[in-house]
Batch of 2 targets.
Target 1
Amino acid sequence: MRFLLLTGLWFGASAWAQSSAVSSYLATESVIAKAGLLANIGPSGSKASGAVSGVVVAAPSTNPDYIFTWTRDSALVFKAIIDSFARGEDATLRTSIDQYVAAQKIQQQVSNPSGTVSSGGLGEPKFNVDLSAFTGAWGRPQRDGPALRATALISYGNSLISASNTSYVLANIWPLVKLDLDYVAANWNQTGFDLWEEVNSSSFFTTAVQHRALRQGAAFATALGQTASVAGYTTQAANVLCFLQSYWNPSQGYITANTGGGRSGKDANTALASIHTFDPTAGCDAATFQPCSDKALSSLKVYVDSFRSIYTVNSAVASPGAVATGRYPEDSYFGGNPWYLATMAVAEQLYDALIVWKAQGSLNVTSTSLAFFQQFSSAVTVGTYASTTATFTTLTTAIANQADGFVAIVQEFTPSTGSLSEQYSRSNGAQLSANDLTWSYASILTAVTARNGLAGDNWGAAGLVVPSSCSTSGTGSSSGGGSSGTVAVTFKVTATTTFGENIYLTGSDDALEDWSPTSTLILSAATYPVWSITVNLPASTALQYKYIRIFNGVTTWESDPNNAFTTVASGTQTLTDTWR
Ligand code: NOJ
Ligand code: NOJ
């Protein structure tokens, strides 16, 4: 009893000390972060030399060379700026925002290696800072960019509509949004490179932000009287929501980041998707993987735990202790280190969850989220806990403390200048890779907002129902470019597996990973024992494939001969197999 009491007091005191240290760090660091972010934006940012008006330089670094503008980074950075402007925090930001809009209007029209504005060019990931095309080899296309840009622009548009500026929005913002959303509606079912520019497949972050963009795009079009666009966006949003479910790995309790890539699939991709699709009106809805949903919380724990023993700086700290986290455990870029924006995303997801639990006055523990909650109280069981219960208080206090713990890690490895690079060393926390990464600074600002209890926007996630059958066809076969000549083929195989074992697909085409046994496509077990995956393949083509199973690092191929079939000329196709 006395021991428990002392432990409680000690815990309370150390949590309080951490909370006030984190508050004071963030008070200072958020000022540095805002200045650091603005310094990287043209034309007048002090570290943005060469960047034209409204262009966000990813980082003023020549090694690695980040003096380019990425559609993704720029949209995430401007979303943070726009939200701050819309909350009335700083009216002077309007100038930069209008410059960003003008720059994107130009950038959308620049022909580039992914195509022209009407043939897939919107999927180009990065441009030179004078807005000319970057023509070197790169992982392209990346299909999250247009969706993220649409979301940023819609947020700005909505704030202007609230200020009775609808005609301005219709003339200056809607045309850009429409181009991006038409691209998303036409191409969401096509593969592309993930947000880390490495894996060419479908990716959870990309699909999740596409879903959000289409939903809020339908509402935005309605508000502007653009009714012709509404039905298409709504129909495709439902299809995307359906596809989004397929990333969930039910046997291991996490969201698999990519359909390809041959990795564990544990990835900051999924926490980033949760925070950038947060909608407090949706509660803890799992269909949209809200930050407090059981699936997103379970996934967050699996992701965080994957870094405990691999980074020296974590000194194998056990759960629920906070640790440094990176993009994904297998990462080797610059040696594969923790990233500030990844560690901050963990904190932000937890702060978002706390906002919702407090607003709804209760918290729900399901069998899916039980392991997450048991980190904080081993005695907790499945059930709903009202805010008047001791369990609610115990859990939310411990979770707030864990969230602050992740910020405390970032604080520990922030140099005295307050500047933030992309990575910090896995062995000693020293800064690595690009210096002054604009996205790192934005990640501080959005986490501070969530820690202060300011909720994200209502983008229409509340009450969505996942359609019972999924269609995987986009609106256009060629209007967005890059999609003509491919058909969506769904592979379904009935296979009995043991816990921890997964089924993969490999075969005789690039999109089937060219028979690679290591870089293969993982199937979804959402309808176990039927495993499935949908892959875009060249139309009217004879192909061969096999399923493989991987368990404890051991790969087992299906017996010979290869499965063979010919893809249809257009539309979609389903193959139904039994493991042999
Ligand atoms: C550069 C990309 O920006 C980065 O995400 C990736 O890890 C490396 N290329 C891989 O070489
Ligand atoms: C590499 C990251 O993997 C990618 O997400 C980012 O867009 C670029 N660096 C630029 O910051």
Target 2
Amino acid sequence: MCGIVGYVGRQDAVPILVEGLHRLEYRGYDSAGVAVVARSGLQVHKAAGKIRQLSAALPKRLKGTVGIAHTRWATHGEPNDANAHPHTDCSGQIAVVHNGIIENASALRAQLEAKGHVFRSDTDTEVLAHLIEAADGADLDVAVRQALMAIEGTYGIAVIDARHPECVVAARNGSPVVLGLGDREMYVASDVAALVRHTQQVVYLDDHEVAVVSATGFRTSTLDAKPTNKSPSQVQWGYEAYDRGAYPHYLLKEIMEQPEACERTLKGRLDTQFSTAHLGGLNLTARDWLDIRRIRIVGCGSAYYAGIGGAHMVEALTRVPTDAEPASEFRYRNPVIEKETLYVAVSQSGETADTLAAVQEVQRKGGRVLGIINTVGSTIARTCDGGIYIHAGPEVSVASTKTFTSTLIAFALLGLHLGRIRDLSPADGKRIISALQAIPDQIRAVLRSAEQIKAVALKYASRANMFFIGRASSYPVALEGAQKVKEISYIHAEAYPASELKHGPLALICPETPTVVALPHDDLYEKTLSSLEEIRARRGPVIVVTNPGDERLPAKVDDLLLVPPTDPVLNPILLTIPLQLFAYHSAVALGRDIDQPRNLAKSVTVE
Ligand code: BG6
């Protein structure tokens, strides 16, 4: 996924565009560029590498009151100066920035080259600039709509033309585009993060919508020019929520924000009178719930792992068969969608294309989908039939942390809500409610042991391989722990159900390869201990995350990380926190780019 920004108004666009790019850098950071209409005409500057490289290369005298900009996560054409956006047409008057994939780009390119157009990059996006040039529309928006009619694929675009310095034309299909309403100025962006410093009033474009944005306002229409009505909405978070503050990295800030994030996820949702959870956005009656025979969860990356953890929670509290699968594989297995099955899509950004496609597949086949989403107003949230916003706040670091634990809290609330409609007793409801209420302070207790976790992380940061194991509801904890270590420290880490170790992976256990064991004091404690013994017998170092109280354990392990005991259903929430800090400190010790790990993006809006 990439980030696009646009501005038209009375101020100099360049600093606004560059600051907007910095706010969107988590969307892609392998190259960037800016285009403004200056007195001398269209000026385009782009460079491979981080945005700081681009801003250092920008001529000081570059000025203009209308412009567009882009930060890239390469899909077509390697990250270099020529392939960086914006892309221009042959006349050098039109500039385009694009987030998405044009599937029929090579066919269109061949047609345009046959008509004499000269291409200067290997990207799919450049065809758009030439298509707009080739369109015989007097107005820029007419030309843009004609060009968009010819392409197949996904896009979030912004376009400027030096002959029309009064406006920016934006459009979306599949990739998010939001307009920001200012005083005699307007903003365009892929995400509100790029414009909250300037305005809290925004308009989300829908698929196949085109917007003409000028300093005095905007108008929207469909691709075939039918006007559409849009009502502005208020952004939930202020500018400071997107700021790193005194933290060295967004990742550490977001790990430390988890108590407050979980408090926001719980806020107003615990109903102590009926010992249940109040979830107002599900659009499901108790009657509907009684018809539900199965629950299937889909998501990608950490959202998928949170889904596996959520499946354990929901099934334990409702006795409804619940499982999870990767959204990226879902529709390609031609899934059987059943009326009595409820689908739940999990996504922090609400923009991940694979998860959106899974939601659309279920709905296309007549199924019902709930969303557990962080980003308010995001595409998946607006596509689902109902859902739960987790209100964890903006998550900027590419590796997700606070949205993982807040998503687990949301699943516990969903399980409580449905369980109390079915046969979960009031006493059990009360038990879960008081355990949930204790979680934020228990997380604070775990975060207070950050220095001890750091010491353990530094001890193993130089290892090339690591294993993470856990049983049943602790297996998704192992998966997420391994994911974090892979994502940010680039150490090869694999997660296994502890019981599976002896059926293969045990062959890799040796003194060089440590194993992290998620070992809560639940009914599988002794069983998991035997897996631990198998590792020790092969002199594999063992790091255990567990609850206090077993005097035998210190002698059996190399390192012990303790978390407070909670209800077994909620164990994964607390057990994950030390693994986040473990991964963070390993990555810092290895000098990794913590918030923008190589090859990754915060959410991938292309399939
Ligand atoms: C990946 C991110 O691109 O997408 C992961 O790097 C994330 O951190 C995954 O878990 C899914 O993103 P989302 O926004 O759908 O939860």
